[in-house]
């Protein structure tokens, strides 16, 4: 395990509250951030995990217009659904901030903007900006749809989902207004910009030092080599946080600029809720803080280039140690699409199958470094075979065998092979979940392979059954500890039956110590294990 001397602050890219979450959403930053949080807590780290909804995003009024609701009510309704889905999946952050309902958000954004403005870090420029003549309005991001200037993929008006590159100030190729469908023209408009090129040297040094995923590092290095742009940070619009400067009435701050301050606001709100307001300042000013961002690759520009530069401009010593990105998660070979109805909604799915089953399958098929796919037949195999027949069946057999053969106590003499596999599994899962690597697919695969072996080994065991059962009990208890980041409900239940020591309000089993048996000889073991991996209905066919 990497030695950490300070706290860990984990963030998850804020979702737009313009719809509920589908499995594609869950597979990415939400899942990764939750798994890492649970793993680090089990290893004894001090972890804070925060996020928020992007209430000021221009996608909100667009969605509100489509469904006939005001923007603020749209954000409120969908934020509730997002939180419900995250709760069902066991993926809620320690603190989930609501910008429209918590004044701290706007206060922090204005405060940090004011520092940058006072320090001369922000400039005013006249820039060509997309404009819709019939609508008589400037157009940005969700208000535009066209082709990326760099890869020609369909894109909205700010960042391309495919290549992640920011569109230049003149916007997309063939850009059309999403309100009326008219081809946009360009007009000069007065905008505030953050000159990113000033920080090219320090950003390059950061990229040389950080163990980020290769695609993100390649992206960042190409950005620097091509010349970092002046980044527009204001828009002429009415929905959002107004620019807090005289003479800038009718201008708002771009949420792609202010997003890092959303993380700060969420941290401050969390610290205040804990009754330790000083914690927020400590997290963002202590050089020993490990800052970890979880993002989709299309958020690379903000989290890996713009926001580190803003932190440098503010003199903040805490820069992202890890930017952990993921690729797209497809559905039966096609891209998740809410407009085409091609989606599995998390809230529906998680009411029909155990959350741990969804979590484990998302781990097995996680789009860590390449696009992967959710297929119903594969999920059914995970649920019914890997988790139902093998894990549930083996767990029940071990506990029933201990009750029948050993009076529900753990014998001192234990078969060596299960003990060796317990040690190997602990090592493999730890290696996969360290943030320098963070490959939950590898962790899940190691768990699945171990469970498959254990189920078959116990099924065929005959002589010296008590010795075999003792070895399997040690393996099962070890699995309950190391699988907890992926299978928290199952692990919590099994840890309770073995009376394993737990950590924190999550009741996570403590991570096994090297060379030390998890179970003591003669330890009493609980009975009455209830199998949990059965779908509550045949959702999705």
CATH topology descriptor of the largest domain: Rossmann fold
Number of contiguous helices: 16
Low-pLDDT ranges: 537-541
CATH superfamily (homologous) name of the largest domain? HUPs
- On the 0 to 100 scale, the average pLDDT is 94
Number of domains: 2
Gap between N and C termini, in Å? 43 Å
Strand order of the largest sheet: 3-2-1-13-14
- Structural class label: alpha/beta
Please indicate the percent range of residues in DSSP E strands (runs of 2 or more). Answer: 15-25%
How many strand segments?
19
Task: Supply the CATH class of the largest domain.
Answer: Alpha Beta
> How does CATH name the architecture of the largest domain?
3-Layer(aba) Sandwich
Summarize this, please?
With 541 residues, this protein is α/β, with parallel strands linked by helices.
Describe the structure.
With 541 residues, the chain is of the alpha/beta class. It has two domains: 8-348, 3-Layer(aba) Sandwich (Rossmann fold); 376-509, Isoleucyl-tRNA Synthetase, Domain 1 (Orthogonal Bundle), CATH 1.10.730. Helix content is 44%, strand content 16%. It is built from 16 helices and 19 strands. It has helices at 23-42, 59-67, 71-88, 104-118, 200-209, 214-226, 255-273, 278-285, 300-313, 346-349, 355-364, 376-406, 416-433, 440-460, 465-482, 488-497; strands at 8-12, 47-52, 95-97, 123-132, 137-138, 144-147, 154-156, 173-177, 185-195, 230-232, 234-236, 251-253, 290-296, 320-326, 329-331, 334-335, 372-374, 502-503, 508-509. It has a five-stranded parallel sheet, sandwiched between helices. The radius of gyration is 25 Å and the shape is elongated. Residues 537-541 have low confidence and may be disordered.
